[in-house]
Each structure stands twice: as structure tokens, then as C-alpha cells.
């Protein structure tokens, strides 16, 4: 979608947290429903991390699949069910996971 | 050495949205973020709402280019400001904050923010709104909630527009409702036609209800 802005945010947060240390790794968590395209982030990162403390850092992404919680029996299931609960057969629920988009941690040189 | 961060990538936007929210709440303004694909009827819904709500309204119009929408809204004699994102696919909290300086909003009880027509990116950027509303329309097809679950899961209300063309289009309302309920249990779905004005009263009543 707008991965250039997002990647700039990623670099800004990482550089701020690193406090002048060289960043060797950035660990991101991206949910399936967050509309964030990992490949675009990687592409943008290579370009705009140049000449920053994050240049050359390893970008690691943990993907979180979308999880729906049944409104009826509270069991959880995936998006492939189109909202149809495999336990009780009722349709409908709330998103329990999959909207994540955050920086879990960074790795810096000691 | 590993440093735990656990920070939302959109943290800067979230913080500015919180400032906007405080600004609106202090002035007792209900801010409504209206999202939809291009052509679903966001501007038409705002125009009909201005006619039917009977409360002072201000409008922020978001588009990539042009001032058509702001001109249409301006004809209704309500304060309006146009944001041209110049290519950006969504409005963000910073754009709203800047545009508020150009909008005479103090007398308004409702602020309608018409987002850029797009069912993907606006879902991620909160603006400081009290409620998020999705406008869908019959010609788009009944599968949209299944195709854009991220967007449908974040809203407090859905307006299904262009119900007047239902006889001419293979659109299964029950199927559409299943898609909405698959990811969103709470949001009311208002079936309306901004052209014939059918169904709009329930939408207006809901807007009045959320004010208190």
C-alpha cells in the first residue's frame, strides 16, 4: 500500500531505540489482515536504510495468520472458513488476531 | 545485543490521532471517518446526511486530486476543506491536524471526514475519529466483505448504498451480511439509496444516538 512511509517509520523507530549503536537486525510482526506487503518493505528497506545505522541490518518478519473468534462458542478458526465456525456451525465472529504490525525487537552491536 | 521494542510501526500516526481525538472531544464534536472504494457514494451520503441530520456539520474531503467534492459540499453552506493527498492512498492523522487550521469547526457538532476511495490503506490509519463507517454499494458486488476483511473488521457501521439498483444486479444481500458478520458482529448495516433517500432515516437516527 504505502510501504515507503511504513519503512521510513520502521527505520526511525529502530534508530531511535538503538541510540547511536549500529543496528544488525530488526524483528517485525506482521498480521495477515494488516495489508502490509513484506516484499515491498524489504525492497524499500534496502533503498532507504542506506547511510543510516540500520544499513545492512537483517530484517526478520514473523507473520501472524488471521484468527476469528466465534461469537457463539468462542472457539477460534482461520479466515478460510468464511466466518463459519467449525465447532458450532454458526457464522460470525470478531477478529482475534491478524491485525498486528509492530516492531518486536532490534539487535544492535554491543 | 537484543533490545525489546514492542512498538506499533504506526505509533507516530496513532499519537497524532489521539491529539485530534482530544481536540474533537473537547469541542463536543462527533468525528466520523467515512471510507469506501471509489464511487460507492461517500460524498452522496455526506450530502444526504447534511440535509437530514439537522445539526451543524463540517466536512473534510480527502482526494488524490481535484476539488469537485468540496465544491459539492460547499453548495450546502457547510464549512468544508479539501485535502489533496497528491497520490497518497489514504488520509493520515497529520493531514487532519493541518486541515483543521483551515476549517471553521467550533460551531459544528459533527465532522465528516471523507477518506480517499480505497478499501485497503485507510483501514490502517486512524485519524482521531469517534466512529469509522464503511460505505459499500450494490454494484460493487456482495463479495466485498470477504475480499477486504481487514477494512470490514475495523468499522462501527456499514452503509450499503445504491439499494435502488438491486433489481438489476446479481447482489445477494444475505451473502453480503454473512461476509460482514464473519469479521464484525456489532456494526449495524444500513441499507440505503442516496438517490431515492430510502433507508436513510435509520442512519440519521444512529448518528444522533452515538452523539450522546
Biggest sheet features of chain A: 3 strands, mixed
The CATH topology assignment of one domain in chain A is hypothetical protein PF0899 fold
Major β-sheet strand ordering of chain B: 4-3-5-2-6-7-8
What's the pLDDT, averaged over the residues of chain B?
Answer: 96
What is the CATH homology-level superfamily of chain B?
P-loop containing nucleotide triphosphate hydrolases
Low-confidence stretches of chain A: none
Oligomer: heterodimer
Name the helicity range of chain B.
25-40%
Secondary-structure element order of chain B, as H and E?
EHEHEHEHEEHHEHEH
Description:
The complex is a heterodimer of chains A (110) and B (212). Chain A is 25% helix and 33% strand. By secondary structure, chain A is of the alpha+beta class. Chain A has a domain at 3-65 and 99-108: hypothetical protein PF0899 fold (2-Layer Sandwich). In chain A, strands 2-1-6 form a three-stranded mixed β-sheet, covered by helices on one side. In chain A, strand 3 (67-70) and strand 4 (76-78) form a beta hairpin. In chain A, helix 1 crosses helix 2. Chain A is elongated and about 55 Å long. In chain B, helix 1 (11-26) runs parallel beside helix 4 and helix 2 packs across helix 8. Chain B has a seven-stranded parallel β-sheet with strand order 4-3-5-2-6-7-8, with helices on both faces. Chain B contains eight helices and eight strands. Chain B has one domain (11-211): P-loop containing nucleotide triphosphate hydrolases (Rossmann fold, 3-Layer(aba) Sandwich). Chain B is globular, with a radius of gyration of 17 Å. Chain B has helices at residues 11-26, 42-53, 68-74, 93-100, 144-147, 149-153, 173-183, 200-211, and strands spanning 2-8, 30-36, 57-63, 80-84, 110-114, 131-137, 157-161, 189-191. The N and C termini of chain B lie far apart (51 Å). Chain A binds chain B through residues 1-2, 6, 9-10, 12-14, 17-18, 28, 33-36, 66, 68, 71, 79, 82-84, 91-95, 98-99, 101-110, and chain B through 1-12, 88-90, 120-121, 123-124, 146, 149-150, 153-154, 178-179, 181-185.
Amino acid at each position: 500500500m504505502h510501504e515507503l512511509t511504513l519503512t521510513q517509520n520502521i527505520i526511525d523507530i529502530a534508530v531511535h531505540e538503538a541510540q547511536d549503536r549500529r543496528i544488525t537486525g530488526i524483528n517485525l510482526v506482521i498480521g495477515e489482515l494488516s495489508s502490509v506487503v513484506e516484499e515491498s518493505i524489504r525492497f524499500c528497506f534496502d533503498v532507504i536504510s542506506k547511510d543510516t545505522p540500520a544499513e545492512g541490518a537483517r530484517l526478520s518478519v514473523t507473520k501472524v495468520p488471521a484468527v476469528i473468534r466465534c461469537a457463539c462458542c468462542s472457539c477460534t478458526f482461520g479466515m478460510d472458513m468464511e466466518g463459519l465456525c467449525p465447532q458450532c456451525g454458526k457464522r460470525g465472529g470478531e477478529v482475534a488476531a491478524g491485525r498486528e504490525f509492530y516492531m518486536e525487537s532490534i539487535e544492535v552491536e554491543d | 545485543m537484543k533490545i525489546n521494542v514492542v512498538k506499533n510501526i504506526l505509533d507516530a500516526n496513532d499519537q497524532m490521532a489521539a491529539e485530534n481525538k482530544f481536540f474533537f472531544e473537547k469541542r463536543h464534536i462527533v468525528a466520523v471517518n467515512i471510507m469506501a472504494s471509489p464511487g460507492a457514494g461517500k460524498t452522496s451520503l455526506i450530502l444526504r446526511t447534511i440535509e437530514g441530520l439537522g445539526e451543524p456539520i463540517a466536512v473534510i474531503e480527502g482526494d488524490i486530486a481535484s476539488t469537485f467534492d468540496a465544491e459539492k459540499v460547499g453548495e450546502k453552506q457547510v464549512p468544508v476543506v479539501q485535502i489533496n493527498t497528491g497520490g497518497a492512498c489514504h488520509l493520515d492523522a497529520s493531514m487532519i491536524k493541518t486541515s483543521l487550521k483551515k476549517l471553521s469547526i467550533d460551531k459544528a457538532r459533527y465532522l465528516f471526514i471523507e477518506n480517499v476511495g480505497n478499501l485497503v490503506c485507510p483501514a490502517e490509519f486512524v485519524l482521531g475519529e469517534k466512529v469509522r463507517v464503511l460505505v459499500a454499494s450494490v454494484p460493487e458486488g456482495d463479495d466485498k466483505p470477504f475480499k477486504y476483511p481487514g477494512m470490514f473488521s475495523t468499522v462501527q457501521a456499514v452503509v450499503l448504498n445504491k439499494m435502488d439498483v438491486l433489481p438489476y444486479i446479481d447482489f445477494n444481500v444475505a451473502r453480503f451480511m454473512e461476509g460482514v458478520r464473519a469479521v464484525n458482529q456489532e456494526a449495524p448495516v444500513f441499507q440505503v439509496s442516496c438517490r431515492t433517500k430510502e433507508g436513510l432515516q435509520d442512519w440519521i437516527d444512529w448518528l444522533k444516538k452515538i452523539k450522546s
